[in-house]
Design a protein that fits this description.
The chain is of the alpha+beta class. The chain contains 16 helices and 13 strands. It has one domain: Orthogonal Bundle (Cytochrome p450), CATH 1.10.630.10. A hairpin with a 3-residue loop joins strand 11 and strand 12. The chain binds protoporphyrin IX containing FE.
Amino acid sequence: MPSVTTVPGRWPLVGHTVTLLRNPVEFLASLSARGEVVKVYLGPLPVHLVTTPELALKLLASDKFDKGIVFDKMRPLFGNGLATSNGAFNQRQRRMVLPAFHRTRVATYAETVITSLATELRDSWHDGQRLELDAVVQDFVMTVAGRTLFSADLGPRVLDEIRRSIPVMLRHVLVRAFSPGFVERLPLKANREFDEAAARLREVIPEVVLGARGDGADHGDLLSALLAARDADTGEAMTDEQVHDEVVTILTTGAETTAVALAWFFHEVGTRPVVRQRFHAEVDAVLGDRPATFEDVPKLEYTGRIINEVLRRTPPIILMRRAREDVEIGGVLVRKGAEIAVSQHTLHRDPRWFPDPGGFDPDRWEPARAAALPKGAFIPFGAGTRFCPGHFLAHTEIAIAAATIATRWDLVPAAGHRVHAQLKATMQPDRLPMTAQSRKPPA
Ligand code: HEM
């Protein structure tokens, strides 16, 4: 079989990590021109990368791959939850967890949590208020995640702890993943912060799980759905430990990704007058002054196209896997134990499917144009066996929050700061200072 091209720009010891950190989007976007399967080094670790939609789907649908190194490093945090587990255990968990994300449940989460928190946020600002919008949306999304999971009266202590701890852990997780194991045990500030945050979560979440199990009622929240889930074959419920792992997994995987997408949404709309004008026209036509509800989401069509375009341009970075056995993919032999990946940035910036890939054009998502894309060209939520269970919830939350806020506010980028993308656990804006300007003259 042919050997694989190693991408130029590799440094001794650190591999391509320097190039990746310096210029992540350009680096990842450049890979499709180098071959269907290429090799990069993340630190000393060789990783095969597939670069076509077809091979991406093949990789993500195959049962010959486990999750790989990043997820090994996350196991102390996620335990054996949906994102980190593998094989038959993962499939069983997935069957038990998916009903919690069903449309009808999402409708309830929207009704009981999302619309009211978005309205509260909208009503909390005054005209001309300066906002650090990245922090505002992160706080909003963490609060939504906390209340969606645990709608019952949670002491503010638990929600505060979740809001405080998860961002701390996410700040450090990627560096952990690509550093040698001993680094985690060094007496560094980053390690101390990570370990303390993990310990605090381990303390507060079991309290809530035990409390909810004790009362046995369906509160319409995610936790009730997890507790009610039964294995189709054995009829067994999840153990407390398993529920704990799923709760931490859902909070961590769901909140950061959604917050980053919502932050980019406001940035893109705020910096593009034509998009902003069309977005506001739609919000005015569909909502007038009232907050958005679950039923409004399909009517907010242009808003949905903006969301898609945000997820095309600034999706999560990479989906990593490890071969369970020797596997052939794209004419290349990937040895058992080797790491293999696909980056959404490579696929989403391929000019064959997305002309002017660096541009921001919500009209690419006009139904006929979107239908002409090859399957696998747009995979912000992954694909195949590990497809994101939270995709519909995320879309619903972003649409409701963005539209509700726009019924009153025009969020205008503050002068003096040029926003740039930063590689953390996801690709996020470094800072997002904005000013809330009233869209309606005072009554
Ligand atoms: C815009 C927001 C979101 C994006 C872009 C996103 C993206 C992704 C992607 C790409 C994966 C697949 C990872 C892989 O194949 O290795 C994934 C998995 C996952 N997501 Fe999301 N997600 C989002 C929101 C959410 C939300 C709101 C939740 C839950 C509340 C959630 C829960 C999960 C879980 C539990 C997994 C693991 C599934 C598995 O490995 O079997 N996500 N997400």
